[in-house]
């Protein structure tokens, strides 16, 4: 999955203005605007005035991934940009993007990209 794929899926849904599709738009927009924030699924659901179960069920049914996985993917994309375009430390980038632990961020980054953040940053 990618942010672009989810955006494409939302565009396809736009022809049908159902209550479910409008909720999906709100969810995706909230995640795009707030991916740097530290929040739980319950907090996201509360902000969107829907139950956590319904939020997760709807998102996973439509996009095949969890809400938190999508948020982390948005963070990963931002981390790649920051690593390539800023001198900020890996720790600073991790905290700026909402991770509570820079080691967790580094492990997640390596698992998803195959490279540590430092190795990703180095020019080839």
Explain how this protein is built.
This protein has 124 residues and is mainly α. It is 73% helix and 0% strand. It contains eight helices and no strands. The longest helix has 19 residues, at 67-85. The model has no long low-confidence stretch (mean pLDDT 88).
List the helices and strands and how they pair.
Elements (H helix, E strand, L loop, with lengths): L2 H11 L5 H16 L6 H8 L3 H12 L3 H19 L4 H7 L5 H12 L3 H5 L3
Sum up the overall morphology in one term. Answer: elongated
Helix segment tally: 8
Q: Unreliable stretches, pLDDT < 50, 5 or more residues? A: none
Assess the beta-strand content as a share of residues.
under 5%
Q: What would you call the structural class?
A: mainly alpha
For the sheet with most strands, the description reads: none
Rounded to an integer in angstroms, the radius of gyration calculated over CA atoms is 16 Å
User: What is the terminal separation in angstroms?
Assistant: 27 Å
Tally the beta strands.
0
Order of helices and strands: HHHHHHHH
Characterize the quaternary organization of these chains: single chain
- Summed over residues and divided by their number, the pLDDT gives a mean of 88
Helicity level, as a percent range?
over 70%
Summarize the structure.
α6 packs across α7.
Task: Describe this protein with a few key phrases.
8 helices; mainly alpha
């Amino acid at each position: 999955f990618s942010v672009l794929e989810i955006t494409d899926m939302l565009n396809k849904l736009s022809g049908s203005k159902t209550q479910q599709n409008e909720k999906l738009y709100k969810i995706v927009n909230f995640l795009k605007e707030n991916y740097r924030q530290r929040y739980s699924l319950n907090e996201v659901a509360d902000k969107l005035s829907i139950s956590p179960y319904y939020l997760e069920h709807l998102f996973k049914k439509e996009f095949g991934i969890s809400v938190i996985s999508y948020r982390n993917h948005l963070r990963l994309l931002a981390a790649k940009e920051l690593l390539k375009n800023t001198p900020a430390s890996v720790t600073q980038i991790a905290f700026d993007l909402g991770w509570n632990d820079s080691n967790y961020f580094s492990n997640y980054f390596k698992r998803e990209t195959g490279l540590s953040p430092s190795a990703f940053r180095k020019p080839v």
